[in-house]
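Flagellar hook assembly protein
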Amino acid sequence: MSVNGVQGVQPGTASGAGQTAESRRPTDQLGKMEFLQLLVTQLRYQDPLNPIDDREFMAQLAQFSALEQMTENVRWARLSYGLSLVGAAVKYWGTEGQPEIGIVYAVRIDSGEPLLNLGNREIRLEQVIEVAPPSFEEE
């Protein structure tokens, strides 16, 4: 028995549950959920007389684990960097596309992303152009 191809996941299964095309973020990269869906689909439609080699399966799981760890490391690095900016003067892209300057007073985490509080506004880390270290005045 041969399998010619996989047609995709039907609505109401793991990938379609609770999401519409509009709520999914467009991306050209393979995320962890897409990777797991691909792996499950591969297992579901494999030929029972010629199953996937267990070494290949373990290699795919190791790749997934490495991807997960790298994603987590990047998230923590971004949070740490955002927290390190407290007290620093930052130059950032303002709402009109012009550079502006402000002091970071606090950091708020919104959906895992650090938002820098500049007193009268919040900006995303991606808006920062330049950072000046905090200046401590001695009395």
